[in-house]
Amino acid sequence: MHKLAIDGGSPVRTKPWMFDYHGPLEIGELEKQYVLDVLDHGRVFRFMNEVDSSYPSLLENYYKQRLGVEYALAVNGGTSALICALAALGVGPGDEVIIPAYTFVATAAAVVAVRAVPIIVECDDTLNMDPQAFEAAITPYTKAVIPVHMRGVMAQMDEIMRIAKQHDIFVVEDVAQANGGSYFGRPLGSIGDMGCFSFQFYKVITSGEGGMVVTNQEAWAARAGYQHDSAFQFWGDTMKVPSIPGENYRMSEINGALGYAQAQKLEDIVAKLRAVKKQIVHGIRNVPGIQLQRVVDPEGDVSTSVILYLRNHEAAQQFSKALEAEGVPNGHIYNGGFADRHIYCNWDYIMEQRMASPVGTPWNCSEYKGNVSYDRQMCPVTLEYLSRAITIGLNQKMTEEDCEDVVQAVTKVAEAAAKQ
Questions:
Q1: Contact at 8 Å (CB) between 419 and 9?
Q2: Is the pTM higher than 0.85?
Q3: CATH number at residue 97
Q4: Is 121 a member of any domain?
Q5: 64 flagged as catalytic
Q6: Which of 34, 288, 329, 409 has the highest CB neighbour number within 10 Å of its CB?
Q7: 108-111: which pairs have CB atoms within 8 A and are 24 or more residues apart?
Q8: Catalytic entry in 3, 64, 203, 277
């Protein structure tokens, strides 16, 4: 191979890397049509006449059909979706909720928002929750577990569901980063007791801000509805479940219009992403010196990224810099630099058990009988995987030529590293 670009050689790729976020790249005439329809009719609040024809309702129907679930509730964000799901299940003070060490801080924030205690456990080489770590963390206070399908890759749901069933633990799927994914033919979000989605700007499809809660249980759907709107029963709700006070997590009509337009493009986006990743993985799977992230069901991968493991932290840092010089942007996930809020040790208010008030927090309220402490090195296996992992973000607009550039750049850098 030729000299590395980082050492003064010619880079594999000189063409600019112009790819952006997935959903926003697809915004076009359909989104404009639906949003203008909202404005033309002056209906920016969903609970008006003909509620079933509102755009959030149409988006809910889409998810019910796509996932094969009975109930769906559109909300104003992925965090709101998690809060509504946990409240629906009765999770609260005195309860523990098991979450993975690698997920966005919102997963932990939702747990403390209902005044439960997050229990952080290790991830394995899938970069998702290690089922054995989940089982080992169960205590008499464990009420729920939140497996998170990180970076489009599914958690090991068969194992997690089996363990949860054995111990009578609720399962809330966090599908914020894996919208459109599946697990051996089952849509992600439809496997656990409740599923939670995000339509925030950075997600596969976007409504700017927004989320969705899904379930097959009427009572949980009703309680989620009450949690998302303290006046929910006055908007025509007919479910025979006692109401509970909630917050305002309603989705606006404009967000619903954007989300419904984007939802109609989800399958196409994911299909293109899968073709992109398949080409790249095929080209680099036998390259010496790198290990690909384990994906338990490659056919169900949303394929938003390719993650490579190097032999250690230093090798990953060098590889990342060399790959960047070859014209392929990437990220070294845990590098001691930017405090990535997807890594538990950077969740400052969780690590320090800090709430808006120091009184009656999830950790010191009278209802909690457990004893949990946090340490920034408490999940060394997860940190070790992340410290030697680099990620290459993928985009549905990538061409075969773009994919080949990635393959050539990774191969070039890996072969050079093997000679050192």
A1: no
A2: yes
A3: 3.40.640.10
A4: yes
A5: no
A6: 409
A7: 108/344, 108/347, 108/350, 109/79, 109/350, 110/79, 110/82, 110/83, 110/86, 111/82, 111/86, 111/146, 111/362
A8: 203
